[in-house]
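Render this sequence as a predicted structure.
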Amino acid sequence: MGEILSIIGKVLTLVGALGLFLYGMKLMSEALQKVAGSKMRQILAAMTNSRIKGVFTGILITTTIQSSSATTVMIVSFVNAGLLSLIASVGVIMGANIGTTITAWIIALLGFKVSLSFLSLPLIGISFPLFFSKNSTTKSWGEFIIGFAILFIGLQFLKESVPDINGNPEALNFLASFTDLGFLSTLIFIGVGTLLTIIIQSSSATMALTLVMCYNGLIPFELAAAMVLGENIGTTITANIAAIVANVSAKRTARAHLIFNIFGVVWMVAFFHYFLMGIDMFVQQKHGVSLLKTDLSQSDFDSVKGVYPIGLAVFHTSFNVINTLILIGFAPLIAKVATRMVPDKGEDDEEFRLKYINSGIFSTSELATLQAQKEILNFGLRIQKMYSFIQSILDDPKSKKYYKLLSKVEKYEQITDNLEQEIAEYLTKISEGEISHVSSIKIRAMLKIIDDMESVGDSIYQLSKVIDNMKQMKLEFTKNQLVSLASMAEIINSAFVVMNKNIEEDFSSMEVEHANSIEVMINNKRNELRQQHIEDLKAKKYKHKVGSIYSDMFSINEKIGDYIINVSEAIYEYQQSK
């Protein structure tokens, strides 16, 4: 019984040490993302289809925020929003794989060569006051230093809790049964590395565990390298999980990550022995130690074991760099295979991307404004379609599609935010060049239009939240309320049609009277519903809570009508002032 408790205690200590390391890594990564995250997103948003540029972007971002998982999830979200193409995302993922190897170097050089655990508490003492700063950047730096300190405390505990060959011969005997199977051992430890990374959801934590096991002599260098290969497969799971609720393009990006890493492991397994011999020769030249020599005495092993983590870091980096150099030319093929793996499934999987604007150099400012106008029309059609989801949600809130539609409204709201930002940046870039007076006025009108359109997206999302809150409270509209809201929605839809027609007419002609008449109809309908609502409340035809939600619904609809007429008015003002 005592022996079982001792084993349980050791396992929990190991898990706790790993948890502490992981928490430190998470705290450090999240703090860095707060400090540099917006810049990282700007860099990603500015990405073109240049694969080389994509690789360096991936390296830069992952090295900065110290998390390849965060980078790949960010890539998936950008592809989901249509701000990054599939081929460009493949390049960024390749770079992220290289960038994540920096973590292994930090651990190998600072965690084993230099023991920073004794500095950890003083570092926490220094950074703790920063943690309470009102300045968000200062606070984030405090969190980063605390995370850095906790990471090395966790690493120290990990080194102490992982059995070593000297004090735990039974552990060595257990592992020996798996280490003497030749090529099968390599496959087993690739599987172990993959499984551990999937469970822990952090290749950095699994890498730290692999480095410690090799450092303590539990597994030979060759099988530690095999675990590193497994970690490269396991780390792709995070992006694939993130892509489950994303659109077809984001799913393809996640699959491309999986294809890239698995193919890399496959070719590496074929040349594994020769590659390790090359790494061994390199390390022998630099440190005078053979990583593949297994018949070392305990004293000899203790004197050279610090080189093993460095050898693994060299292996990890060289593998990912060579894999990228081999496969970067095949990015279109990887994208094609990923497309085959995730075929289009119709409307639900449509791609959300800028159709007419690209980040390349435009030929003339006049042509660029035409491209922006086409993109704005696409924006208008998008929010019109987004609004149609609300009526579907209202018509049958008990259907299986209900939560799917709610999710689509939320996704569209994010897309409208991104569209507004991207088009605004593009228009600002145009205005910095040599443009005519008329184009300058047109750009100002366009900026106002996309601002109002983004507000429409926000209001539609607000409608979905109001409906969902009602569903959570298990309340329902009366038949008359549903009919009234449907009649208002019909008028709003006609307003959308006129708005998009006015945008499509190249800002040269518009139905201003028609647009204004519809706006009057929306206001009159709102007043009619408000008056009827007051009378119905007095007659106690429905509960006050239902009445409050109903009032929010027609008020938000009226607000949407205001934003829509603002678009037509902006076009009219442009016509009058040019």
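Summary. The mean pLDDT is 79. Residues 354-577 form a domain with the Methane Monooxygenase Hydroxylase; Chain G, domain 1 fold (CATH 1.20.58.220).
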